[in-house]
Amino acid sequence: MRVWLIRHPKPAVPEGTCYGRTDVGTDDAHFAQVVARLRDLHDTDHGPTPLRVLSSPLSRCARVAQALAGAPWPQPEIEPLLAEMHFGHWEGRPWSELPREEIDAWRDDIAGWRPPGGETVTELADRGWRALQSLAPGGERADPQRPAVALVTHAGVILTLLKRVRGEPLKSFGGIRIDFGSVHGLEHRDGRWQVISENV
After folding, report:
1. What share of the chain has pLDDT > 70, as a percent?
2. Does pTM surpass 0.85?
3. What's residue 1's pLDDT?
4. Hey, where are the domains in the chain?
5. In 3D, which of 56, 64, 168 has the Cα closest to residue 121?
6. Which of 50, 59, 150, 193 is most exposed, with the fewest beta carbons within 10 Å of its own?
7. Three-state SS for 26?
8. Alpha-helical regions (H) of the chain
9. Bridge partners, 36 (sequence order)
10. Span 166-182, mean pLDDT?
11. For residues 58 and 84, is the Cβ–Cβ distance under 8 A?
């Protein structure tokens, strides 16, 4: 089976804002571009059009999934496991104004340090992985009649899933691009997940 990892369009927030779990809107023009491009994706890009769509509950994702609904795209299912990382007391604040000692502590242990009131990157990675594994053959949400599933989600979820699939540590995310509105493709083959396309 194949899974499309779709990042939401550009958010309507000031540049440099920490907005992880904050429910922000999207740039209207970019939203329209992303939806139109996703409707035009076909077999040669990522495999069959998804017969199932799971979306983060945050509106910047759910709105995309709902806009796509209609033949051949199905109505979306909301999946809380696909929400962006919870940055706790950092939410809604400019990154430049966050306490220096907290940012340094996070950079020193990006996988395990918890922003005040939030969650760790490892916790984010674990719940994203649970959502993905539930779709694999034998998983609790697997459906052999639905060979392609789209997950409309966030950069944090996509980054950690790519790391887990490749067996890479979570301690660094440098060099991995996850553009707004982009699609990464995964395939479950021979009992494991593989990355088959990136940043399309």
Report:
1. 92
2. yes
3. 83
4. 2-197
5. 168
6. 59
7. strand
8. 28-40, 43-46, 59-68, 100-108, 121-133, 155-166
9. none
10. 88
11. yes
Q: What region does 88 belong to: left with phi over 0, alpha with psi -120 to 50, or beta?
A: left
How far, in Å, CA of 89 to CA of 25, rounded? 20
Can you tell me the distance from the alpha carbon of 27 to that of 179, in angstroms, rounded to the nearest whole number?
Answer: 14
115-127 average pLDDT score: 97
Chosen CATH of 2-197 out of 3.30.460.80, 3.30.200.20, 3.40.50.1240, 3.40.50.80: 3.40.50.1240
- Helices 59-68 and 28-40 sit at what angle, rounded to 10 degrees? 40
- Determine the residue type at 68: L
DSSP for 158-190, please give it.
HHHHHHHHHT--TT--TT----TT-EEEEEEET
Question: What are residue 150's phi and psi, to 5 degrees?
Answer: -105, 135
- Cα separation of 173 and 192, whole Å? 22
Packed helices 155-166 and 121-133: angle between N→C axes, nearest 10 degrees: 70
**Which of helix, strand or coil describes residue 149?**
strand
Return the number of other C-beta atoms located less than 10 Å from residue 176's C-beta: 16
Whether the Cβ atoms of residue 22 and residue 94 lie closer than 8 Å to each other: no
Q: Residue 117: what pLDDT?
A: 97
Cβ neighbours of residue 56 closer than 8 Å, sequence gap 6 or more: 8, 62, 78, 79, 80, 82, 83, 84, 152, 153, 154, 157
